[in-house]
Specification:
731 residues, Galactose-bd-like_sf, six-stranded antiparallel beta sheet, 1% helix, globular, 43% strand, mainly beta, PKD domain-containing protein
């Protein structure tokens, strides 16, 4: 064992919450010595409680102390019909935090009265959502509590509930059972009713499987799903006859409610059955096969896509009865078994064992996002589809020169937000259609910079994103839903608001509390810095607003450098060239207001360049673009070389021979102006040095890790002075 101090860490206690859901069950207790009148057992309960203090509510001064799971018995005097004792239960948690609840106790010395006609005083029904579960509620005149004996063989203990409160019981098997109900009051007499009740199993899903997340069409190939953005070939035959015999049945099953109709494939008496595709599918670029399957049986199944050239490879599906089970099967499972994924012609489902029933939905191939296109966006550089930003008690400028250009935000232009003391200051925009936050389309993100010099007061440093219904006019705030995120000062940061997975808050002044992803009335976005109901000042800068699905995480490496001390490139190296990564920008203007740049000095070196190396190697399939800003003053050039810039990728492991397998792109430049240059190894014309014979496409290579930047070519002794800024490697 370890005797380290950390082993005694009790910090978890600080996170313990007070008990909740305080209640008590009353049960009359027969005792000849007390005359069988008014003797009541009280069993308290609560989530997170260790003990209880009980005030009996009849004037008894002493409180009863009861530990969790125990009961206390108290004798009560009779009350007139319709009156109650208020029993007060104080639940005590392990840290001493308490929560109090009150239960009403009627005490009448009369036998309980109730009808044995079902659904008068006694309600017994099959649960509409849980298979083989029965729900019971008993409301007897003079009743305090009731017991139910459910008649399942070998299970003779009753369940108890207070009069008028429901209880439930789940049977192992469907069938007809004798259910006995015993109502109890404060007298010694009970009243009983007996029923023969048919317990039923739910044999079909009552709700749809969870909707698939929104995906770009390039990242999904659908076989069957009627969810948005998962269109499939209508020629796919979901019920082909494959000579299975006569013991199977197929069809389409519908789940209908107020907002949608969901079509599901049903296979019953399953031996083997499947899908005949209307056209072969090439899934070789996908990564997973997704399925949602529901069954009422204690059975499993198997699935296999079928390749036209290489056949099948079954995958075992372990199913959970009476609920949807979701699968995301790596395609490597089938490939490792010898299957080709480039010519999928059929799907096959097999019963395990034969004869069960399954419901299948959302059959599709998918891969992690290869690209990201937000549904709403604005970079404040003229690119975006948000046309109208408005300030509400706040100054707003959507064309403000970025005052804090660095490696965390190279953008030239940002939104300036000025709260000069407005009580409810914010900036906002109205969408031309309502938001649909379902299927993963619940994520808003932005970059923000809040300088400490622009803040007054003592508000928490935070940013809120609120969604409202513009149709409510001046009352739109009363039904708003919002997320608050803390921020740090004096640096650019990306803040994400996810209305499916974050902790959201509803204003809830209209009495309802819906989940935001279920709402269809929201169309206004409000951004507020450092809260409201104050007259403090805040200046903030906002950039790169996006709305849509979760953006794919940036894959390493991520070299970038704004030469302000926050870059990820730790070592720039010069080769026959002078280099200064902390040079004061000599040409600061609206195209580049950054105070610090890289100075590049070619004083006649034949192969002059600057360079750096990254770890791990570049994956040009994931990210293919390199972007930088450059300024070349004409006064610093000699010779007659073409004015251009080359970006070369090399394999550092080749030592002095790195140049022999390099791949590069050359772009023209203009003199005496800042300009932004992008080198795209997917879409631009690239050149391979090709001194070793092969000529691979750069995106197929996995050996490249060195970046070389060269101005006005090589194999010359001309001079060049250049200034480089805002280097970035990205999608």
């Amino acid at each position: 064992m370890s005797c380290a101090e950390d082993d005694n860490d009790l910090s978890f206690i600080d996170k313990v919450e007070a008990p909740s859901e305080v209640s008590a069950v009353f049960k009359p207790t027969l005792d000849e010595d007390s005359g069988n009148l008014g003797l009541i057992s009280i069993t308290p309960n609560a989530i997170g409680a260790a003990s209880y203090n009980i005030n009996f509510g009849d004037g008894t001064e002493m409180l009863a102390e009861v530990i969790q799971g125990e009961s206390v018995v108290h004798q009560y005097a009779e009350l007139p019909e319709g009156e109650f004792y208020d029993v007060i239960i104080e639940a005590v948690g392990i840290t001493g935090l308490t929560t109090t609840g009150t239960e009403s106790l009627p005490v009448v010395y009369e036998a309980p009265e109730m009808s044995c006609v079902l659904n008068e005083n006694i309600e017994i029904s099959n649960d509409i959502a849980i298979s083989k579960e029965v729900d019971v509620t008993v409301t007897a005149k003079y009743g305090i509590s009731y017991e139910v004996y459910f008649g399942e063989p070998g299970k003779d203990e009753p369940k108890t509930a207070n009069n008028g409160e429901p209880l439930d019981y789940q049977y192992q098997e469907a069938g007809t059972y004798t259910i006995r109900v015993v109502a109890m009051s404060a007298s010694s007499q009970t009243t009983e009713c007996v029923f023969d009740f048919e317990v039923t199993a739910i044999l079909q899903p009552l709700a749809s499987a969870k909707a698939p997340p929104f995906r770009q069409t390039s990242d999904v190939i659908s076989v069957f799903s009627d969810k948005a953005n998962y269109e499939y070939n209508l020629a796919n035959d979901l019920f082909p006859y494959w000579d299975q015999g006569a013991n199977w049945n197929v069809g389409q099953f519908l789940i209908e409610n107020a907002t949608y109709t969901d079509t599901i494939v049903r296979y019953t008496g399953l031996t083997y059955q499947g899908v005949q595709l209307g056209a072969e599918i090439d899934a070789s670029e996908m990564e997973f096969l997704h399925l949602d399957i529901w069954t009422a049986d204690d059975n499993d199944a198997q699935v296999s896509p079928i390749s036209a050239s290489t056949g099948t490879n079954q995958y075992d599906l372990a199913l959970t009865a009476n609920e949807w089970t979701s699968f995301d099967i790596p395609l490597s499972y089938f490939i490792d078994g010898g299957m080709s994924m480039s010519d999928i012609a059929q799907f096959m489902f097999l019963g395990a064992p034969n004869g069960g029933a399954i419901f299948v939905d959302n059959i599709y191939f998918w891969r992690e996002a290869s690209s990201y296109t937000p549904l709403l966006f604005d970079d404040f550089e003229g690119n975006g589809n948000i046309t109208t930003w408005d300030g509400d008690q706040a100054g707003l400028n959507t064309d403000f020169v970025n005052p804090y250009v660095n490696a965390d935000n190279f953008s030239d232009t940002v939104l300036e937000y000025q709260d000069t003391g407005g009580q409810y200051a914010n900036v906002q925009f109205l969408r031309d259609s309502k938001f649909d936050l379902s299927a993963g389309k619940s994520v808003f993100s932005l970059k923000i910079y809040v300088p400490s010099s622009g803040i007054t007061g003592s508000q928490t440093n935070q940013v809120s994103l609120k969604l409202q219904n513009s149709e409510l006019g001046p009352n739109l705030w009363q039904t708003q839903t919002y997320i608050i995120k803390e921020i740090v000062l004096d640096e650019w940061q990306v803040v994400t608001f996810d209305f499916e997975n974050d902790n959201w808050i509803n204003q809830n002044n209209n009495g309802t509390d819906p989940d935001p992803v279920d709402r269809t009335d929201l169309d206004k976005v409000v951004i507020q810095v450092n809260g409201e109901n104050n007259n403090d000042n805040v200046i903030a800068y906002i950039d790169d607003f996006n709305y849509g699905t979760t953006q794919p995480a940036d894959s390493p490496p991520s070299p970038r450098d704004g030469f302000e001390g926050k870059g990820t490139i730790t070592t720039w190296v010069e080769d026959q060239a002078g280099l200064d990564t902390d040079f004061a920008n000599p040409f600061m203007d609206a195209n580049n207001n950054s105070p610090t740049v890289l100075e590049y000095q070619d004083t006649g070196g034949q192969y002059a360049n600057v360079q750096f190396t990254v770890t791990p190697k570049f994956d040009l399939m994931a990210k293919s673009k390199f972007t930088l800003k450059i300024y070349v003053p004409s006064s610093g050039i000699t010779g007659s070389q073409e004015n251009n810039i080359s970006l070369k990728l090399q394999n550092s492991e080749l030592g002095p021979n790195v140049w022999q397998t390099q791949t590069f792109i050359i772009k023209p430049i203009v003199l005496d102006a800042w300009q932004e240059i992008t080198f795209d190894f997917v879409n631009d014309d690239w050149i391979n040095q090709n001194n070793n014979g092969p000529d691979p496409d750069p995106i197929d290579r996995t050996d490249l890790d060195k970046v070389v930047i060269q101005v006005n070519g090589e194999n010359n002794n001309d001079n060049v002075i250049a200034y480089i800024d805002n280097f970035n490697y990205h999608k």
